[in-house]
Amino acid sequence: MTIAKYRSIFSSSTAQQRKENFDNYWEFTQQHGGELLEDDKDLAIKRARLQYFQNNPIKLRKPLANPEAFYRNYVEMQDKPESLDKMTLMLTGIYKFARHEWVGIKGAWDVVPNMANSHSIEDKISRIHLAEEFCHVRLFDEMLKTVGLDKVEWVPLSPWKEKVYEQFPKFPGFLMDTPAFVTELMGVTFYFHLHALFDELLADEPEVRERLKELLDEITIDEIAHVGQRRNFIGSVGIKVSKWLVKPFYTMFFNDIPEVAQLFDVKKMIQDGEDFDFNTVPNYMIEKSWIPSYCKV
Ligand SMILES: [Fe+2]
Ligand SMILES: [Fe+2]
């Protein structure tokens, strides 16, 4: 039997611990992404990594059977989801997940203080966090290009939905912190399940499978750090609320993406969210990521 090294993400913490953890995260995040390139919503190390992928492209041995099915369904599902092959569903599902993320961060970027106007460590951390999320959208775009989908457009939501997303970051912390944390947790759950799906669907495409995993790992390592960081905003009552929110939140969000129920076991995803600790995270990710001190044994 292996001894657990980490406690539940829902473990309690003191205000003093959280303050120290913010200081510690701030040190971590600056060396992790490198210099903030604020005008480009980008980070120097992450940009170099994406450029490496772009300069060393990988192609499918056998082109996608049905790219038209992707282009017909990626923004809005037109066909019956059951009628589509799993590969198409996976790719349109990736796009839809990433699109939600993109809409959320676009709304937030313009309303949270820029770095020059960020005076607290929490504000500075949040600015870097958003820049990392923009890098994720670029990495998702690169995943789609890797399988030959180079005509993907990032389409905004309807104007009123975009407005709703813009209001979200203006909410006071006590309302915003728990859903923001659960959203990050949901991201990690989704990415772990997606990682496993690459093995299933790309057995005959080992090069592309490994490249998609590399691209996804870049994202997942950040998201694991975000889970700890967003958890660190939350006190003892909020963390109970957060655990309670996992099920309704995952259910609501995944219901909005019809691909998810076709490809994944949503019940298991909810369970994974509620049970999350860092023990299931592979070591090569832990080494590059960040974990709150009070989640370590
Ligand atoms: Fe992200
Ligand atoms: Fe994130």
Keywords:
297 residues, two-stranded antiparallel sheet, 64% helix
How does this model look, in words?
The protein is mainly alpha-helical. The chain contains 12 helices and 2 strands. Strands 1-2 form a two-stranded antiparallel ribbon. Helix 1 packs across helix 5, helix 2 runs parallel beside helix 5 (121-146) and helix 3 (67-73) packs parallel to helix 4. The two termini are 16 Å apart. The relative contact order is 0.17. Residues 101, 133, 136, 187, 219, 223 line the site of one fe (ii) ion.
The gist of it:
The protein is built from twelve helices and two strands. With 297 residues, it is mainly alpha-helical.
What is this structure's SSE topology?
Layout: H1 15-33, E1 36-37, E2 42-43, H2 44-55, H3 67-73, H4 86-109, H5 121-146, H6 159-167, H7 173-201, H8 206-231, H9 236-255, H10 258-263, H11 266-274, H12 283-286
Antiparallel strand pairs: 1-2
Helix pairs in contact: 1-5, 2-5, 3-4, 4-5, 4-6, 5-8, 7-8, 7-9, 7-11, 9-11
The protein binds fe (ii) ion (2 copies).
What percentage of amino acids are in beta strands?
Answer: under 5%
Poorly predicted regions are none
Derived from helix and strand composition plus strand pairing, the structural class reads mainly alpha
Please state the overall shape, judged from the principal axes of the Cα atoms.
Answer: globular
Distance between the termini: 16 Å
Q: If helices are DSSP runs of H or I spanning 4 or more residues, what is the number of helices? A: 12
Helix proportion of residues, in percent?
Answer: 55-70%
**CA-based gyration radius:** 19 Å
Quaternary structure type? single chain
SSE order, as H and E? HEEHHHHHHHHHHH
